[in-house]
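Sample A.
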Amino acid sequence: MSKPAKPQGKSQDTGWRGSVDVWLDAAYAALKESGIDAVRVMPLAKQLGLSRTSFYWFFEDREQLLSALLSRWRDKNTGNLVYQCERYAESICEAILNVFECWLNPELFDSQFEFAVRSWAMQSAEVAAEIALADETRINVLTGMFRRFGYDEEAADVRARTIYLTQIGYISMNTDEDVVVRFRRIPQYVSVFTGKALKRRELDRFYGAFGYAETTPGVFEAF
């Protein structure tokens, strides 16, 4: 990561210390690239071209920085998944497509961040507990989404777990799937997860949001 530019008008002897976001962004990048052991004050300071003491203007200690990383993960990955599950949809198929946006848009759900936090949990009981809570929250909101469209409790629970555990499997296996292949599989995934067929207009609207055009026949219901 290149050294951040000092704000204009800030004299050299003022000693720019960065900001909360500068330090947190560096920690976030280090976690995703090299794991939790790379998230340490001295290496981050060296990477940023800042003094070690600058860190303590914004964080009491490394533990507070790690807590901020977990908060970012909760807000981004769990928060956005909850939001997508609760978004308006005309059908369960369209609701599933709302969820799929998380898997295709890293601004909504950062799969590398998810993988890094789950790896971190192997070294920390506290983080493992956070993961367990997040898993429960996410499965519950997916279950609620199915219940909203008339599925009974057992069916909603099993379908929610099928969707969620499939995606966590993708992440845990660090699966590298070509995006075009993933788009082409979407109609079949929706059919498996919901027991229903997509309407062509639902899929076209979804593809259009990502600038993707599909010409291969899929599993569709009539308009």
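Sample B, a different protein:
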Amino acid sequence: ARWLPDGHVEFLGRLDDQVKIRGYRIEPGEIEAALRSIEGVREAAVTVRTDSGEPELCAYTEGLRRNEVRTQLERLLPSYMIPAHMIEMERWPVTPSGKLDRNALPAPGGAADAETYTAPSNVTEMKLAQLWEDVLKNGPVGIHDNFFDRGGHSLKATALVSRIAKEFDVQVPLKDVFAHPTVEGLASVIREGTDSPYEAMKPAEKREAYPVSSAQKRIYVLQQLEDGGTGYNMPAVLELEGKLDPERLDRAFKELIKRHESLRTSFEQNEGGEPVQRIHDEVPFTLQTAVLGEQTEQEAAASFIQPFDLSQAPLFRAQLGKVADERRLLLVDR
């Protein structure tokens, strides 16, 4: 980072290459070192790609087939450090100075990342290949493609299991996705599985009040003991620059509250003294406005965060604080 003349600190980036993937902090250099330690791997590089819309690790290797590289790498590193994509390289792009040009490395899904495509041979494989394409967000998927080579990971495998249950009425254990990571292998598991009809969650019948979960009950009791503390508030502050229509923002928040029952819920005690939750059809909401003036952003946020009265919905508030003509702070608390 560096100091600016006005006293602010400008963040320039990390001195190392540490990245955050699905909540894990990862050093790509550690993965490169592990790849180079595998006998037969002559060269390796690891980058972070966002081609699929989310950050993913992509490994480039030379010397071994990628399936063999993945198998050996899984013995050296935890699952969250295994790259989503393994690309075999024959020629490496270099800069005029002779260093590796990481920006010129091929994107996943290109020729360097392609396997021989084998089309589905039956209806089960066709449906399953389509589910893979929906979950992985790339295609086409051949029946011999490896789910994890195509960018799959444990979270996407969980989503795939859920879609299989809905499409085929068969409950496939998550471990079977890891044990049979191809369309062909997983199709055989589905064919041998027992019927387990998919049942979508149905809305609860409309009632005056509903019981609370154990977690809700705990928080409710703690809030009563603290006489309305802010320990469980979840505030957020966003800086908005440019022209803004406060009325449209106010309508957007009202539509959000109208859409989600949880934002129209209040909590109270029934006649037996037990906490219950009440879902209201409509609740009043107004986007608060303020001029910060000489208040700092930290002071504005601190004064905005207040205890909620759990008996009054919505348990959600928002304020638009004007800093300058085209600069505002949006403060949200829930």
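Observation for Sample B: DSSP finds nine helices and 14 strands in the chain.
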